[in-house]
Amino acid sequence: MRLGIDLVALDELDRLLGRGWFVRYVFAAEELAHAETLGDSRRREYLAGRFAAKEAVLKVLGAGLFEGVTPRDIALLRHPDGSPNVTLRGSAAQAARSASITHVTVSVTHKRDLVAVVAAGW
C-alpha cells in the first residue's frame, strides 16, 4: 500500500484558477462541468478539493505535478452514494500500472479555508 497526503489553503489556489492553461491542465472535463453548476464559494472549495486530491494521488503514483502524469488524467468524481471515486486515465493509468497499483481511494475533508486529502493505493 502507498499513501499520499496533501493540504491546500483556498487562497493559494485563487491566483491559479484565473489562469486558463492551469484549469485545462489540472481538471477533468467532468470536474469542470460540475464546478460550473456551483455557486462561486462552493466552486472554489470544490476545485480546491479536486486539486488536493490530485496532488495526493500523484504521491501515491510516485510522480510530482509536472513529472509525467497529467493531473486531468486523475478525475475525482462521485459514487451514487456521494463518496469520492478516483478514476485514472491516460498517463495516470499508465503510472498506476508501472507502480503495480490497481486501486486508489481518497478521503477529503474541508475546514474553514483548508482542504486536506489522504489517498491510498494498493
Automatic annotation (TrEMBL):
InterPro entries: 4-PPantetheinyl_Trfase_dom, 4-PPantetheinyl_Trfase_dom_sf, ACPS, Ppantetheine-prot_Trfase_dom
Enzyme nomenclature, EC number: 2.7.8.7
GO molecular function list: DNA binding; holo-[acyl-carrier-protein] synthase activity; magnesium ion binding
Cofactor(s) recorded in Swiss-Prot or TrEMBL: Mg(2+)
Principal location class: cytoplasm
Location of the protein in the cell: Cytoplasm
Top-rank taxon: Bacteria
Keywords linked to the UniProt accession: Cytoplasm, DNA-binding, Fatty acid biosynthesis, Fatty acid metabolism, Lipid biosynthesis, Lipid metabolism, Magnesium, Metal-binding, Transferase
Gene Ontology terms: biological process: fatty acid biosynthetic process
Residues that, per the record, bind Mg(2+): 6, 55
Enzyme class at the top of the EC tree: transferase
Gene Ontology CC terms, in alphabetical order: cytoplasm
A Pfam family assignment: ACPS
UniProt keyword Oxidoreductase, yes or no: no
Catalytic reactions on record: apo-[ACP] + CoA = holo-[ACP] + adenosine 3',5'-bisphosphate + H(+)
Family: Belongs to the P-Pant transferase superfamily. AcpS family.
Biological role: Transfers the 4'-phosphopantetheine moiety from coenzyme A to a Ser of acyl-carrier-protein.
Protein name according to UniProt: Holo-[acyl-carrier-protein] synthase
